[in-house]
Each structure stands twice: as C-alpha cells, then as structure tokens.
Amino acid sequence: MIFLNNNNFKKESMTNEEFVEAVKYILNHELLSLNDKNNSKENPLILVDKEARLNRYDVICSYIKELEAEKKSIENFFKSEMDGYETAYIGDRKLTLKNQSRNTIDTQKLRTELPDIANAYTKTTTSKVFKISQRVLKNV
C-alpha cells in the first residue's frame, strides 16, 4: 500500500515493480485530472507511460524512409533502363515513362500585380497538422 503524506510516497510490503506501477498510476491520474482542468494551448496535455508506442512510431517512420529510398532507387533504375522509350514490359506488367504538363498560376506575381483579384479568388482552409518533434528541456 502507498501512503501519501505531504507529497511523499512511502511503500510498505511492496515489490519495486508494484511501487513503480502505483506511482505511475497516481501520476497519470493526477496529470489527467490536471489536463481536464487546464485544457488549453498554454497548458499542453502530458502523456505518461507512452514512450514505447512513440518509439515504435519512430521505428516505423525509419522503415518507411528506408523503403521510400529503395522504391525511388528502383524507379530510377527502370527510368535509366527505358532510356528513350515511353513504354516497357516486364512479364504482364507495363511500365510507362511519359512527359506530363501542368498549368499553374504564379500567386506571388498575381498578388503583386493584381492584389484585388488575388484576394477575391483566395480561399483559406484550416486543418489540423500532427507533428512529433524533440522537446528542448531548459536547464533550471
């Protein structure tokens, strides 16, 4: 059993593993209740005991990077093999390499030369962007 006394934890008849799990539970419970009260941009959510899942995410991202690099390498190999040809066959698979055109509007030039028209045709959309970055801890 854990006793709370003036923010001190005391263990009695507990293994170290039980004590660690109990402390994690209490911290998680306290942090979640704090998060419920302080849900805002200034007071971010603190997730406890989620490192393993985040580490797995990092491993998967690393695999994806490696696989994308390998995919690009294979594409470049076939592009060089098709030198001058638009179509190639490997068994029942068809590979094509064709020029493709795309028309775009130079928005910077449009905003400079015709700002009223640029504003009239500018559409703003909002979306949530998920990012994971390394937090820089400040020395206290």
Could you outline the blueprint of secondary structure elements for this entry?
Elements: E1 2-5, E2 8-11, H1 16-37, H2 51-81, E3 87-90, E4 93-96, H3 107-113, H4 115-120
Antiparallel strand pairs: 1-2, 3-4
Structure description:
The protein is mainly alpha-helical and 140 residues long. Among the domains are: 1-48, no CATH class; 50-98, no CATH class. The chain is built from four helices and four strands. The protein has helices at residues 16-37, 51-81, 107-113, 115-120, and strands spanning 2-5, 8-11, 87-90, 93-96. The strands form two sheets. It has a two-stranded antiparallel sheet with strand order 1-2. It is flat and about 80 Å long. It starts with a strand and ends in a 20-residue tail after the last helix.
Please tally the β strands and state the result. Answer: 4
Q: Helicity level, as a percent range? A: 40-55%
The dominant shape is flat
Task: Give the structural class.
Answer: mainly alpha
Could you describe the largest sheet, including whether it forms a barrel?
2 strands, antiparallel
How many DSSP helices? 4
Order of helices and strands: EEHHEEHH
**Which regions contain 5 or more consecutive residues with pLDDT less than 50?**
1-8
Q: Largest beta sheet: what is the strand line-up?
A: 1-2
